[in-house]
Amino acid sequence: MPDKVSVLVAHCPDAGQDGPLLREKISPVLTLSEYDDFDEAVRIVQRVSERCGIGHSCAIHTSRPDRVMRLAEAVTHCRVVVNQSTMTNTGGFSSGVPFTTTLSSGSWGGSGVSGNITWRHFLNYTVVSHPIAERVPDEEALFGPYWDRAGERTATEPKAA
User: Cα 69–71–72 angle (5° rounding)?
Assistant: First the structure.
């Protein structure tokens, strides 16, 4: 193989199908699927994830924060990696993710942890609890923006002023 070749790109016009190109690969092969609009791309990512293991991770290369948030809100992934390789999910000096050799998939993938498994997960903690003054959260402050965005407000729930 020539020295200048570092990755092979395989075109896959139908991301709705299943096959080795649309599964996780530990190799220098990148699968390229086309889409007509960004919402379709998000659906493709989710469909591939549902076949390969939900909860894990995906990557997006963009300068648009709105697209990062649309992807993160729509997919069942514990990690959405922005403008970097998904290899940094195991930790790196510039990824902000703790070093690990074990990635977790959260409850989506059948795990109790939704993040990188580190040495801290293997420690036992003892918590000493004393009575404190009760602090009852304001449900509107906590969930109001979500209810508005998701359209899940019931007829008895007031809308935020």
Answer: 65
- Backbone angles phi and psi of 55, in degrees to 5: 100, -20
pTM comes to 0.69
Q: In this structure, are strands 102-103 and 116-117 parallel, antiparallel, or unpaired?
A: antiparallel
Domains and CATH numbers, the chain: 8-119 (3.40.309.10)
Tokens of 82: 């922005």
**Residue 60 contacts residue 38 (beta carbons within 8 Å):** no
Mean pLDDT for the stretch of residues 77-87:
87
pLDDT of 2: 64
How far CA 146 is from CA of 67, 83, 85, in Å, comes to 18, 27, 30
